[in-house]
Design a protein that fits this description.
rod-shaped; about 325 residues; eight-stranded antiparallel beta barrel; Porin; alpha+beta
């Protein structure tokens, strides 16, 4: 009977350890007392020694179970505390983020891309001629039918108009400067200098001059020719003060192709060049802008005798998108 009691106590103790003390220590004490009384009534001759052995084993198991209970309680308290601390930290972080978002002013999304239409005044550095003009020899004293000398075109002033696109590439100059936007500008421009008048000589007059001077003149030029130039350009544009209504900008250097008409005396019509510019625009209403700019167009050398370097100054109207 003592062995049976011991076995029952061991099984109960192990079960308590595995499930984290399902029974209270008082139940173990009651079981120990009941076993002791039963052993005393059944075996009076062996009661004292058996009870002592059972008591010692039960006490040892009770001590182990209590130690395991204490350790489990400590682990649970520590885990709950760590989890609570982590959750509290996350909640505090979210609160701080929400407060910062609410405190920031609401900004309307700007339309950084733009299509613009421009026009203004142009001035060329050099006299712009065209194909060979037989009346450009002033020593001949040739006059048209109005009595005025017909010589080479000397106009250097012109007017221009054009259009283009701005495409936004970066908002802060690739991390170098805040609120400084980088855009790519693609544009086309038309400049007109003058209209080349006909020389006014009839075929008979041309033949008379040929016989008198032995200078070979072509047939009379009865058509007019418009002296102009078309330009296609691509350039980086650095625009300051992003988010404000007034925004100055500059073009450090850009690439362009120039087409002249009439062609040079060598029948050359195309030449590459560079463009530099500064300007500013102002948002007057929603996505509608007005602005002004100054640009200098430079082509190294000449196009077989024709130089096209020019300064443009004018205004533009832009639409953001």
């Amino acid at each position: 009977m003592i062995k049976k009691t011991n076995t029952r106590l061991v099984v109960a103790a192990v079960s308590l350890a595995v499930i984290g003390s399902l029974a209270a220590p008082q139940a173990l004490a009651h079981k120990r007392h009941k076993s002791h009384r039963h052993a005393t009534r059944s075996y009076s001759s062996y009661s004292q020694s058996g009870s002592s052995e059972v008591n010692s084993k039960v006490d040892a198991l009770e001590a182990q179970v209590r130690a395991m209970q204490d350790e489990l309680s400590t682990l649970r308290a520590g885990g709950a505390g760590a989890a609570g601390t982590a959750d509290a930290a996350k909640v505090q972080e979210l609160d701080q983020w929400m407060a910062s978002v609410k405190s920031e002013p609401v900004k309307a999304k700007s339309k950084d891309n733009m299509v613009f239409f421009r026009g203004g005044y142009a001035h060329f550095d050099n006299v712009r001629g065209g194909t060979l003009d037989p009346t450009s020899v002033s020593a001949l004293g040739l006059a048209n039918r109005n009595g005025t000398l017909v010589g080479p075109i000397t106009d250097r002033d012109a007017w221009y108009f054009g259009a283009g696109f701005d495409f936004s590439l970066d908002d802060n100059l690739w991390g170098l400067m805040d609120n400084t936007e980088v855009l790519a500008e693609l544009g086309v421009n038309y400049s007109q200098l003058a209209t080349k008048k006909n020389n006014g000589l009839s075929p008979q007059e041309t033949a008379t001059i040929l016989a008198a001077t032995e200078i070979g003149l072509p047939a009379a030029n009865t058509e007019t020719a418009t002296v102009n130039m078309a330009t296609v350009s691509a350039a980086p544009k650095i625009k300051f003060l992003k988010g404000s209504a007034f925004r100055p900008w500059l073009i450090p250097v850009g690439f362009e192709l120039n087409v002249i008409s009439p062609p040079s005396d060598a029948i050359t019509v195309l030449t590459p060049g560079m463009v530099f510019g500064v300007g500013a625009d102002y948002k007057i209403w929603k996505n509608l802008y007005v602005g002004a700019d100054v640009r200098y167009h430079y082509a190294p050398g000449d196009i077989d005798g024709v130089r096209i370097n020019a300064l443009n100054a004018g205004g533009y109207v832009g639409i953001g998108f």
